[in-house]
Amino acid sequence: MLILYYSTMWGQELCVPGPGLAGVEFTTDRRRHASAHAVIFHIPQLKYGRWMFLPKKLPGQLWVAWSMESEENHPLLRHPRFMKRFDLTMTYRRTADIPVSYLPNDKSLVRGLRQPLPPKISEPLVAAFVSSSCNRSRRQEYMRELTRCLPIASYGSFLRNRTLADDQGRASKLETIARYKFTLAFENSCCEDYVTEKFYDPLLAGSVPIYLGAPNVEQFAPGEHSFINTANFPAPKHLAEYLRALDGDDAAYQAYFVWKEKPYRAEFQNLLAFSRVTTAERLCEMIQAKLKGG
């Protein structure tokens, strides 16, 4: 079975899937389009009008719409005429044909979530890594207002007032936010199921996420009382007051980590089990079933 990635995610090199996919070949060579059993399109890279110039869909060939980006930022994903071209969807949506989670699928996540709380040695109370200009959630406005009430160590390009001495990517980010009591986990849009690494990274590092984003984020949390939801506060100033109160009450702050000592919530356990099967394996299983008429 030949699977053609007509476009990879933002032009990145295609990572060849690991074992367990015997008889499956992945390619990015568009010249092999006529031989491909399935063709995958990274939807966020298609613009209005350009999709009309996609290649001809061949009889029996499956087309897969792929996106890890929010539908708010890429409305083609909700365009009926456009989406009729595709047989399968592969997105962050749990209702997608091939759901793709932002939850890492390696064992380090499970080990990291169970690690003891690291010492909080950095000031101020809150760290932030906000860089993208995408702002459908109005996170920039919320963060700007919050900084008027409470100092924030901002390492992202938005309102930057801190820099990393030796930036090694995600490892440096996790090491940095581990030193702060709280970390802003602000999504660029507020879509159901759109829960990204912004939520998981603080949990992994041992910092309390202050979340702004998906209305159903609770379904993605490892335990009760594991994060602070901005939706529960009338305004940023009320959130700032609450954070100051937690800073002065160690027992109340430590209560945000009791979940580390308890079994994970059933929904989170299901997410962990789901993430152990690679996206490539689930993609192939779905394509094979569809080709067989399943």
Q: What is the secondary structure topology, with strand pairs?
A:
Elements: E1 2-5, E2 25-27, E3 38-42, E4 62-67, H1 80-83, E5 88-91, H2 107-113, E6 126-128, H3 139-147, E7 152-154, H4 170-177, E8 182-186, H5 197-205, E9 208-212, E10 228-229, H6 236-247, H7 250-254, H8 266-275, H9 279-291
Parallel strand pairs: 1-2, 1-3, 3-4, 4-5, 6-7, 6-8, 8-9, 9-10
Helix pairs in contact: 3-6
**What's the average pLDDT?**
91
- Shape verdict: elongated
Structural class: alpha/beta
The fold-level CATH name of the largest domain is Rossmann fold
Main sheet: strand order:
2-1-3-4-5
Radius of gyration: 21 Å
Distance between the termini: 16 Å
Tally the helices. Answer: 9
Can you write the helix and strand succession as a string?
EEEEHEHEHEHEHEEHHHH
Strand count, sense and barrel status of the largest sheet are: 5 strands, parallel
